[in-house]
Write a structure and sequence with these properties.
single chain, 200 residues, alpha/beta, Helicase, Ruva Protein, domain 3, five-stranded mixed β-sheet, two-stranded antiparallel ribbon
């Protein structure tokens, strides 16, 4: 890599800091960018800047959105009484691909992890409880991951939700591997997990 000009070395170094991108892949991506037309590379640069400028969290569910409210929260055909709680936006997208969920979402933006210093105040738990307290929600599905952190989060939330006895609380069930990350689970397995959810 040291034989490349400084500008190319810096591009490779920046690309290699992306998750899942090692030095060799970063080098290949840099070479692709160099070979691309000026219009194509300019478009890529503009899209990176645009996504940083435009993308924000939906004020209702905390999904990624280009505006204050995401497309799912704007959709009038969704069932307001059913709320699916997930850890990350990628988990919500995975569930959407399964096509089985027609309710709303709440994205915690992480999972409880005392070892990493992530407690309830670091997540969108306060906002979740406020949404439920509004009185529209009748069912909450806890679709956090099956890792230790995901299970800890589900148990914590189930305990908090006991304050709302009229609400049915369930957990996604069979098919999701223990320790698995929802965004890597195939849509059919997620569909089965949602369809066979169980009470807590």
């Amino acid at each position: 890599m040291n034989h490349y000009p400084k500008s190319v070395q810096e591009l490779i170094a920046s690309l290699s800091r992306l998750p899942g991108i090692g030095a060799k892949t970063a080098e290949r991506l840099a070479m692709y960018i160099l070979r691309a037309s000026p219009q194509e590379s300019q478009q890529l640069a503009q899209r990176i800047v645009q996504v940083k400028q435009k993308t924000r969290l939906c004020r209702h569910c905390f999904a990624m959105s280009d505006g204050e409210t995401c497309t799912i929260c704007k959709d009038p055909s969704r069932n307001d009484g059913r709320l699916c709680v997930v850890e990350q936006p990628a988990d919500m997208i995975s569930i959407e691909k399964s096509g089985v969920w027609k309710g709303r979402y709440h994205i915690l933006q992480g999972a409880l992890s005392p070892i990493d210093g992530i407690g309830p105040d670091a997540l969108r738990i306060r906002e979740l409880l406020a949404r439920i307290a509004d009185g529209q929600v009748s069912e909450v599905v806890l679709a956090t991951g099956t890792s230790v952190e995901g299970e800890t989060t589900a148990v914590y939330l189930a305990e908090k939700l006991k304050a709302f006895p009229a609400i049915r609380v369930s957990r996604i069930a069979t098919g999701v591997p223990v320790g698995g990350d929802l965004k890597y689970v195939d849509p059919m397995t997620l569909r089965k997990a949602l369809e066979s959810r169980h009470g807590l």
